[in-house]
C-alpha cells in the first residue's frame, strides 16, 4: 500500500528536528518570562520555519539521496518535488506573518535564520566552512527571543553578547553531532565539510566524544548565563 502523500510530506520536513527545535525555543521563551500566548506563537513560528528548512534540504539533496538514501520520500517518485515546492511556498507565506507578529526586529531575526540556513545548506554543506550558517543562525535565536512580542509589537532590549555567543557555539556543536551519522556517505561523495575534515583527523568515535563534551559544556554555560547575565 502506497504511503499517503501527507505522511511523505511530513517525513520530508524532518519532523523530529523541527519539533525538538520548536520545543527548545518555546521553553527558552517561557524561562525568559514570556506570556503563554507568546510562547505558543514562538513554538508555532519555529515549527513552520523548521519545516521549510527540512523541505529545502530534501529538495537540495534529491540527486544525492537517489544514490545514498533510497528511503527518502523524494526518492523513487514516491513524492513529487512539485508537491514539496507547493508545501514549502505555502509555509513561507505562513511563516512571514507569523514572524512579523513577534515584532519587526524579532521577525527579521527569525527570517534571517531561515535564509541563512537555506543558503548555507545549498552552497556550504560540502565545504569546510559548513559550520558558518549553523553558528550564524543559532546566534540569531537570542535576538528572536529578546526582541519578541505580540501582535506586531516587539521589545527593544537587545540580547546579551554572552548569550548570543554561547548559543552560536551551541550551533557548532549541534552541526557536528547531526553530521556524524552521514559521514561515510559524505566521504564517498567527496565532500569536505568541517565534520568530515575533523573526523578524518581524529576518527569518528573521538569526534563524537569531543562534540558531545563540547555541546554539553556549552549547554551548561547557557544555563549558567541565563541565571546570571540573563537573555537581555
UniProtKB/TrEMBL annotation:
It is found in: Membrane. The keyword Membrane applies. It comes from the Bacteria. GO terms for cellular component: membrane. Pfam families: UbiA. It is a multi-pass membrane protein. Keywords: Membrane, Transmembrane, Transmembrane helix. Its main location: membrane. GO terms for molecular function: transferase activity, transferring alkyl or aryl (other than methyl) groups. The chain crosses the membrane at residues 77-100, 131-150, 162-184, 205-226. This is 4-hydroxybenzoate polyprenyltransferase. It comes from Nocardioides zhouii.
Amino acid at each position: 500500500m502506497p504511503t499517503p502523500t501527507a505522511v511523505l510530506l511530513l517525513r520530508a520536513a524532518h519532523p523530529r528536528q523541527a519539533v525538538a527545535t520548536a520545543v527548545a525555543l518555546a521553553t527558552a521563551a517561557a524561562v525568559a518570562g514570556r506570556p503563554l500566548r507568546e510562547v505558543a506563537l514562538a513554538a508555532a513560528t519555529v515549527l513552520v520555519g523548521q519545516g521549510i528548512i527540512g523541505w529545502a534540504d530534501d529538495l537540495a539533496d534529491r540527486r544525492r539521496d537517489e544514490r545514498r538514501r533510497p528511503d527518502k520520500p523524494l526518492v523513487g517518485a514516491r513524492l513529487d518535488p512539485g508537491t514539496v515546492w507547493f508545501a514549502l511556498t505555502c509555509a513561507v507565506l505562513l511563516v512571514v506573518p507569523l514572524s512579523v507578529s513577534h515584532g519587526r526586529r524579532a521577525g527579521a531575526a527569525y527570517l534571517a535564520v531561515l535564509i541563512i540556513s537555506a543558503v548555507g545548506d545549498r552552497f556550504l554543506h560540502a565545504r569546510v566552512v559548513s559550520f558558518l550558517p549553523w553558528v550564524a543562525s543559532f546566534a540569531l535565536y537570542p535576538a528572536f527571543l529578546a526582541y519578541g512580542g505580540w501582535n506586531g509589537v516587539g521589545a527593544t532590549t537587545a540580547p546579551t553578547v554572552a548569550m548570543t555567543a554561547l548559543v552560536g557555539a551551541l550551533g557548532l556543536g549541534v552541526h557536528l553531532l547531526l553530521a556524524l551519522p552521514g559521514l561515510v556517505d559524505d566521504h564517498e561523495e567527496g565532500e569536505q565539510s568541517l565534520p568530515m575534515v575533523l573526523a578524518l583527523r581524529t576518527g569518528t568515535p573521538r569526534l563524537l566524544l569531543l562534540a558531545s563534551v563540547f555541546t554539553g559544556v556549552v549547554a551548561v554555560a547557557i544555563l549558567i548565563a541565563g541565571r546570571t547575565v540573563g537573555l537581555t
